[in-house]
Structure formats: C-alpha cells, structure tokens
Recover the amino acids of this structure.
C-alpha cells in the first residue's frame, strides 16, 4: 500500500511537502525563539515587552512561512533555519 503511495509522488510533491513542514514547524520554532529574545530585550515594562513581542511574532511567523515557498533551495532554507535557531537559542540561554 505504501509502495503505491510513494510511486505516485514525484520529487515536486516531496519538495512541496518539505516546504510545508518547513513553514509550519520550522517557522514555529524560530518564531518562538525570536519571541523569547524580544520579550527580554525590548526596553519596555515586562508586560508591554511581552505583548509587543507576541504581536511581532505573527508577522515573523508569516514572513518565515512565505520565505519557505519563496526560496529556491529548500535545503539552504533548512540550513539557515538551523543556524538561526541555534543562534537565537544560545541568545535566549545567555539572557
């Protein structure tokens, strides 16, 4: 049954599925890390900083999702996402 499923998918289908996974899960990961960093770094009171970071997170998530389907190479996008996630994760750990 699965052999029939995989035989019907072309590389374009796998590319589209990969981009969808990147947009949903990769975008969520990077957006959460950026939101944590922004909530600490914004020079407002704690409640306003968190609210501002959360409001900005919707824009950031949308931008990452659009970028997932805009970039030419999805593997380069995964690499950049990994590097950005590690850097923002380290930044959140240091704060």
């Amino acid at each position: 049954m699965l052999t029939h499923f995989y035989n019907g998918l072309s590389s374009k289908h796998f590319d589209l599925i990969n981009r969808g996974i990147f947009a949903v899960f990769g975008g969520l990961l990077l957006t959460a890390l950026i939101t944590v960093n922004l909530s600490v770094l914004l020079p407002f009171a704690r409640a306003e900083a968190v609210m501002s970071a959360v409001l900005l997170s919707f824009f950031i998530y949308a931008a990452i999702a659009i970028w997932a389907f805009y970039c030419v190479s999805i593997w380069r996008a995964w690499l950049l996402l990994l590097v950005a996630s590690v850097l923002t994760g380290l930044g959140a750990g240091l704060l």
